[in-house]
Amino acid sequence: MASKILEAAMSQRQNESGSAENEKLSESISGDVSGQVYGLLAAQALSELGFFEPLPPGTPSSLPLLPERLKQDCTAAFRTYRRFTDDGKEVIDPYDIKNALMYAGIFGTQLNQERLFPLTEAQFVHVANEAYMTRFSPRQVALAEDLFGKFDADGSGALELDELHMVIQEMTGVDEAGLEEKRFGSGFAAWILMKSVS
Fold first, then answer.
1. Does residue 171 contact residue 193 with C-beta atoms inside 8 Å?
2. Domain end: 132, 157, 172, which one?
3. Model-level pTM?
4. To bridge 183 with a disulfide, which of 9, 35, 50, 127 should be the other Cys (CB 3.0-4.6 Å)?
């Protein structure tokens, strides 16, 4: 489905002679759809780089930390759904975990209800981290660090918006003047281009 949408969007980018018309693409597609098209282009580029390959069982992996704002949302969700046990421990019951994750903004989580148990705050944040972030293989970490190093022009250890624009432009071939962070979502840069993957 996504490839068909991408193909249709790309065909809209070409005139009869076959040359790309990026300005007309921006004008002809509404902002929301345009952002989705650029997101699809970025996802396609990431797929070609191997970022969506499943990790075989037992493969060593690294899990990036949650963005601080989302971690705070998870703490608020925990405190909203927690209950106190007879011995005074704060936990979230198994049947509330999915709702608490959604409260924090993490949707579509597949949970095995039979294997769940009451979670402490630290355990809940860990589950949220696993649900929201993507594990990277050592090869994927090296690739992300190479991409990061190539585009962190100012050596700040973070990608500024103009540096992120260069990454997206190189990966997708789309030169979108005035690229806004919201087109890709704040998670896009955090997911792919975090310098410190733990």
1. no
2. 132
3. 0.62
4. 35
